[in-house]
Amino acid sequence: MLIQLKNITKEYDNSGMAVTKVLRGVSLNVEEGEFLAIMGPSGSGKSTLMHIIGFLDRATDGTYLFAGEDIKNFNDNELALIRNEKIGFVFQSFNLLARTTVLDNVILPLTYSKKKNHIELATEALKAVGLENRLNFLSNQISGGQKQRVAIARALVCDPKVIFADEPTGNLDSKSGATVMNILDRLHSEGRTVILVTHDRFVAEHAHRIITIKDGMIISDEENLNQRKSEIMEEDY
Amino acid sequence: MLHFLKNIKIEINNLLSRKARSFLTVLGIVIGVAGVIIIISLGAGAQELVLGQITKLGTNIIGIIPGKTNENGPPAMVFGIQIKTLVMDDVNTLRNKDRVPHIEEISPFVSGNVTVVSGKESIDTKFTAVEGSYPKIQTVDIESGTFFTEEEGRSGANVIVLGYDVRELLFPNGGELGSVVKLQSSGDNKTSVPFRVIGVQKKMGTVAFQNQDDQVFIPFIVGQRQILGINHIQFIRIKVDDPSNIKTTITDVEQILRENHRITNPENDDFSVEDLADAIKILTNITDGLRMFLGLMAGISLVVGGIGIMNIMLVTVSERTREIGLRKALGATSHQIRNQFLIEAIVLTGIGGIIGIIVGILISYLISIGAQYAGYDWTFIISPMAIILAVFVSSLTGIIFGLFPALKAAKLNPIEALRYE
């Protein structure tokens, strides 16, 4: 079992005035190699849940075992190492470094790793998302769809076990969105665990398993037997 | 170490990707550092200029002027009122080595305005009447000819030494040595006295705020009797053999003059004895005030530079906080974030500091060249303390305002930093 959540809660203390409960006891198991979509309306807590699973945030209470180990036992530096080596993030708003080349954006996680051959690895990752001819473009000179593919390359470059994608198509037109989903499909078929957060049923149907979250609790957890496949649009590569 | 170098390389790439921000930060530091260096250099140069005027007279010099200087101010003579209490008898008594052993040379002075006439040319200038011992008291550089001897001075020979500018105007084509010029007193006494030119002074510039080139020297007795027609002395200058004997000599001189003038109570002194140390002390007080004022301005320039740096750092804090969040999400530890921002601050302040030092020194140097060109005896002075202080303060501002928000951001959860507005 790769990820085991037991009764995870998350509360925000609004300067002592009121406590907002975002997650109210979430339990969830994710096997290695799964393609999981977390769905729910805005404010349901789906992003918070993903941030906790992805080590960007800590739960207020509950147990989180990652590959069998309780993450309470990890200090901040160990969590940073896990974020660097074991997981990759794709954000809705891309979060590329501005005025920096595509290549340097992808190299960024490598500078925090022990890996060598940064340029080769980054070029390889950009090839995997079809941007090998955009290496020296600045991040603000490329389209939104290309930006998200750079972000995916950046998530891939350290060869992580799990890819987290938070509304990866949220800021994209449907064509670019389809290309991004196609890449995520492929990453899953290559054996990676993909966890996707979306409010869009159409996007979620790419996953093999869809959980729905509402008011901080899981209200459904179902297998998706008819995965949607994007039509591969070669001209986009 | 290799890792550290790699960090620096990454950081320089980062800085280059934010050219405007880096440039403005560096500019803030350059302004602060260069401003301080220039202002401190100006202050030191001005002080040196003022003190140099006095020390050029020589440091072992004692002056005696008629009238009493006290806490109520300088003697009336300063305001042009004639006081006739010093006479030649006083000078002769002071020449007694048994009574004032440390006097090396002594010369009485009188001076006034005259018109020097040579043929059809004439010039209004100042004459200084001294004894032949004058060059031993105060440096006189002779360009051609000689200064008059002590015999010529005492016997009242009608010989004259011209200042550089006087010679230039009266004898533009040379041939002055041996020529006869006439001195006409500008006072009531309209006598016209002929003098033979025996020497010309080199260009000296100003000493003690007097233009040394716009004057002529004649023997004391001639100036006193024939030109001014007076019996008293306007000023006595004494050279003491060693600086350590100045105070004793002042006491000796005061005693002798009191005896000569039959004064029992020092309150009733009709003369003042001053050494240059007093003058230097007074001027140093004034120029120190000037330097403090300039130092304050330098401080303001540092604050301005600092505020510039602070503003740029604070304006970019939200962008940088999101960047820190992203870096943490991608696996950076707080430690690595801190190093990154520390290196960034060091690189920026280092570059700014170096450019600031170069610009500051360069501008100070240009100012000194300009001042020298304008005829001032300006010394180019750079204070290492000013450089250290300026670089230290600017760097500190850069590091505090660059590093502090970054350290705060590095402590946040990655997601909090990423969402920072």
Explain what the structure shows:
The complex is a heterodimer of chains A (237) and B (421). Chain A is of the alpha/beta class and 237 residues long. Chain A has seven helices and ten strands. In chain A, 30% of the residues lie in helices and 28% in strands. Chain A has a six-stranded mixed β-sheet, with helices on both faces. In chain A, helix 3 crosses helix 4, helix 3 runs parallel beside helix 5 and helix 4 packs across helix 5. The C terminus of chain A is likely disordered. Chain B has two domains: 185 residues, no CATH class; 147 residues, no CATH class. Chain B is 54% helix and 18% strand. Chain B has a six-stranded mixed β-barrel with strand order 2-3-10-5-7-6. The radius of gyration of chain B is 33 Å and the shape is elongated. The model of chain B has no long low-confidence stretch (mean pLDDT 83).
Helix/strand layout:
The complex is a heterodimer of chains A (237) and B (421).
Chain A: E1 3-14, E2 18-30, E3 35-39, H1 46-53, E4 61-66, E5 69-70, H2 76-85, E6 87-90, H3 102-111, H4 118-128, H5 144-156, E7 162-166, H6 174-189, E8 193-198, H7 201-204, E9 209-214, E10 217-223
Parallel strand pairs in A: 3-8, 3-9, 6-7, 7-8
Antiparallel strand pairs in A: 1-2, 1-4, 4-5, 9-10
Helix pairs in contact in A: 3-4, 3-5, 4-5, 5-6
Chain B: H1 2-17, H2 19-55, E1 61-66, H3 88-94, E2 103-118, E3 121-130, H4 134-137, E4 142-145, H5 150-155, E5 159-162, H6 164-170, E6 180-185, E7 192-201, E8 206-207, E9 210-211, E10 215-219, H7 220-228, E11 235-240, H8 246-261, E12 271-275, H9 276-315, H10 317-329, H11 334-373, H12 384-411, H13 414-418
Parallel strand pairs in B: 3-10, 5-7
Antiparallel strand pairs in B: 1-11, 1-12, 2-3, 2-6, 2-11, 4-7, 5-10, 6-7, 8-9
